Amino acid sequence: MSRNPRYDILFEPVRIGPVTAPNRFYQTPHAIGAGHQMPHTRAAMREVRAEGGWGVVNTGYCSIHPSSDDAPLPYCRLWDDEDIKVHALMVDAVHRHGALAGVELWHGGSGVANRLTRVTPMSVSGISYDLSYPGWISLAKSRPMDRQDIREFRGWHVDAAKRARSAGFDIVYIYAGMGFGPYQFLLPWMNKRTDEYGGSLQNRVRLMREIVEEMKEAIGQTCAIAVRFSTDDLLKIPGETLESEAHEIISMLSDLPDLWDIKSSSWTVETASARFSEQGAQEPWNSFVKPLTSKPVVGVGRFTSPDEMVSQIKRGILDLIGAARPSIADPFLPRKINEGREDEIRECIGCNICVSSYHDSVPVRCTQNPTMGEEWRRNWHPERIPPGDPEQSILIVGAGPAGLECARALGQRGFAVTVAEAGEELGGRVTIESKLPGLATWARVRDYRTNLIQTMGNVDIYRGSPLSAQDVMDFGCDHAVIATGAQWTREILSTDGYPISGFEGDAVFTPDDVLAGAEPEDPVVIYDFDHYYMGSCLAELLRQHGNEVTIVTPANAVSAWTFMTNELAEIRVRMIELGIGTVFEHYLTGFSDGAVQLASIYRGSDISSIDCGSLVVVGVRTGNDRLFQELSSDADRIASAGISTLRSIGDCRAPGTIAHAVYSGHECARNIDAGDSIQPFALERPRL
Ligand code: ADP
Ligand code: SF4
Asked: In terms of CB atoms within 10 Å, which end of the chain has fewer, N or C?
């Protein structure tokens, strides 16, 4: 297929200082959870984007000096010459595919705790951010930088830039955004200096200007110098001659850098989930930049639609289409557009599971792309998969995310695949959950897979086909895969964490009941000890239906785990705005006489109760594994039916997130002919 001429503009080269990007697809710097210690993993995770057509591929944040240490979070570094070869591995991998490689040099200022290096953090005036999330609170406050520190700070940037050039990078960043080092100098509430680096805007910008100038002088002949800059804070400060200080700074430095990379100062805003933001939501922070510079401008916006990308360029908002998440979900997005295969784009759903993996300090995993992070250690490619035996037949029972991904990947391998789905609709939980407020994009997990499957001649799907064990055996297949999902239970855990019963009456509901249309009577209490999205989404849904809702949880926040997906604060705001009541740090111990009984998690003797007409329990899911158990308990009959392997995958095997289910389906498809034991994978090893 050939490219739609409507998208030609996306494939124009863009000059960036001394280098030229082959097209407008720009993988912006973003953390991938494979820091300095995992060079092979990191190189492969970046290379796959270059192979997939991204014209520029950047590192994540790369520390320039031990005074900027973000441990235990995974960052990369260029502290001395020994660090160069770790980066050269990635640069060479990116260059193999004709893309430019960029490095995001970074100094965290007071935004780091230096837990590993124990160097006293330093910042513009010794003012540290008020971080109130327990994992991020730093007890090591920063000291103000003196003139000598500032000189050294500039020198560290230049030294790191020279090392970056030695590693082969084409684009070298100075990071003046997101609350980090040079950005702190710009903010009047952080910068209280009375010397030439504080006070007037000219003075506050001085450090940023000096670093750009010095880096240009040192490496500007061969490398482009990019500035990563946050505008949202500065847009709120009126400028002397222009609308805001953000406008003033861009016009002061205008053509000094070779590229402006614009982003929000808050990571939770920058990477807002689809539940709380639309594609292109960053436009208010970057749309004013282009008229103030002749240099190219890049920004993100969770862009997955080529039409929206074209619109961003034609409307003069951006020159380069920046992407982190869309490039994780589909490293081959540019190539698919180039080859007229837009229908095959694996669109990011904006769930932020990728963000949670960075917080977990593990290589980024993605709900849509199960191969992300597995490129090197498992040798998994997002588009290619080893062929299988077309003579082998496989029956998959259940067409949720696990069953559909398994069918798609097995179909791609060439096996003869049949999928039996009990319901009339495909997609299992994503079809149901995408009807929850804010989760419509989650249906993309289903749509990407069904779109591809319907083009495959070797995959048949039967709807309205609930299979029994006898049906599976009668069907006659070489391999049977059971993907029958999970269900929510009414199980409640005691204060010691053990299941307790007694919550079975008509007024007790599960999320499955509510999603199937049950109408709980007021007042509704949602007891949430699942801690992810379901409790707050149901509260929102019931509120839309006019219910009076209170969330009770043993945690100290609504949907407490969403701290990991950067959604916690947004969820809290929404609960407040909707008038949803909250009771934190309490166990539910009983439900009788129109009230639930609660006990404090700290002092069990502190008992209270609140009125409750209906109780919705959001806590424990259990796999629908009856079919699998029935089949696996009779190995002889399975064998005589000609079934050589029987597997369970996804939520049926062990309930988890959608990302777990997709991964499980993919892994099964890769290894269906390799035995059921856990397959070995390569390990990164420190050099001794
Ligand atoms: P997962 O996340 O593991 O893919 P889901 O719950 O999303 O799990 O999907 C499981 C699917 O399996 C549902 O669409 C459900 O209708 C289907 N299913 C469950 N039991 C059977 C069965 N016995 N025969 C066919 N389909 C089934
Ligand atoms: Fe997008 Fe979710 Fe994948 Fe992140 S994990 S890239 S938000 S689909």
From this structure: C
For the CA of 325, the nearest atom of ligand 2: 6
528, 562 in Cβ contact below 8 A? no
pTM above 0.90, yes or no: yes
Residue 133's pLDDT is what? 61
SS3 content of the chain, % helix, strand, coil (to 5): 35, 20, 45
Ligand nearest to C-alpha 657: 1
Cβ(401) – ligand 1 distance below 6 Å: yes
Spatial distance between the Cα atoms of 510 and 516, rounded to a whole number of angstroms: 10
Q: Is 345 helix (H, G, I), strand (E, B) or coil?
A: coil
Cα 197 to Cα 149, 174, 184: the distances in Å are 12, 18, 11
C-alpha neighbours within 13 Å on the C-beta side of residue 528: 29
Tell me how many degrees the CA angle 100-265-13 measures, rounded to the nearest 5.
Answer: 25
Q: What is the CA(367)–ligand 2 centre distance, in A?
A: 6
- With pLDDT > 70 as the criterion, what percentage of the chain qualifies? 99
Q: Under a CB-based contact definition with an 8 Å cutoff, are residues 181 and 108 in contact?
A: yes
CB of 168 closer than 8 Å to CB of 92? yes
Cβ(40)–Cβ(367) below 8 Å: no
Q: What is the mean pLDDT of residues 539-556?
A: 97
Domains and CATH numbers, the chain: 25-276+289-295 (3.20.20.70), 393-485+624-671 (3.40.50.720), 489-621 (3.50.50.60)
Q: Give the SS3 label for residue 649.
A: coil
As given in the structure block, the two tokens for residue 227 are 């500035």
Residue 333: the pLDDT is 98
